[in-house]
Automatic annotation (TrEMBL):
It comes from the Bacteria. Keywords: Membrane, Transmembrane, Transmembrane helix. This is Apolipoprotein N-acyltransferase. It comes from Tunturiibacter gelidiferens. The chain crosses the membrane at residues 20-40, 52-72, 84-105, 125-144, 156-173, 180-199.
Amino acid sequence: MIALLTATAPQPNPELYPHVKVVISIIVGLCITALLKGFAQFVQHPRRNKVSILHLGWAASLLLGVIHFWWWEFRLSMIEQWTFAIYFFVILYAILFYFLSTLLFPSDLADYAGYEDYFLSRRWWFFGFLAATFVADVIDTSLKGSAYLHSFGIEYPIRITASIVLCVIAMITKNRRTQLTLLTLYVLYQISLIVRVYATE
């Protein structure tokens, strides 16, 4: 996959990264807007739809994930030779987060008992897209160079594998206790990762 993305003619133009960054920032901005607008609905209309800790937890985790994504994508500046394939991949990676953001807050809940009912009914889509972000992360990290990839050590492949397995389990089960356990484990590790690895960068 990496060879395919870098196979076309190299373009070592230093202005390409800022150009790509603008497009990514627009998509990230749309993600944050969608999530914050969704959160604001609970303040504006607290009794309109039944609030769910499960739904809110994943929404909060996704907001943190989007902010985290924008931070670590600064490392795209390490890519010296940009191609259209790399540019296209990075944009698709960001779009995955946009789909997740809009999926969490539908425009209408008339057919559902509340946000939890809606979330569980769309869990295959949500966790499918979430799993796709982890696959994309491997490619994205590899594009930034082998030194950067190996700097995360053995924890990185374990984290990616465990996260995908978590998504598969969450796609399969509707059990609320299991879903809440998976959410708790994911959020705790997410916070731990940011504090340990990215807090000083």
